[in-house]
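2.7 Reproducibility. Because tokenized structures are sensitive to small changes in the input, we list the exact sequence used for Response regulator, including any N-terminal residues retained from the expression construct. No trimming or masking was applied before prediction.
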Amino acid sequence: MTNKTLRILIADEQHFHRMKTERLFNQLDYYRVAPVQSLAEMLTLVEYGCEPFDLVVINASLAGGALDLPGFFLDNCQVRHTLIYASALPDFASIQRLMTLIDPPACEAAPSLDQERYRQRIG
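Resulting structure tokens (single pass, no recycling of outputs):
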């Protein structure tokens, strides 16, 4: 089951790219997505946000050499995970794999020890 509280920020100059990427997240049931079109908007949301973003997906060309993106995101406590892409947009499979790492599916493994003990007592 997806964690619907995850905050995702998409930063790309092209409106079509932002919308296409947002739809990929929507297909995976993530709807707390904020699309921005400029580096200034992205920096404002990241620096002045009241809670951290779980994921920032950003086109590397948005920085235009004005900002070292890996360096900025590496030590930024307002961003938990980052995907920086160069030319090709991330596809559905890439987003799905990424979200599996960020939001792992609930484990439906063997029952916990407490559950097993409870069953033995009432069984």
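Residues 8-122 form a domain with the Rossmann fold fold (CATH 3.40.50).
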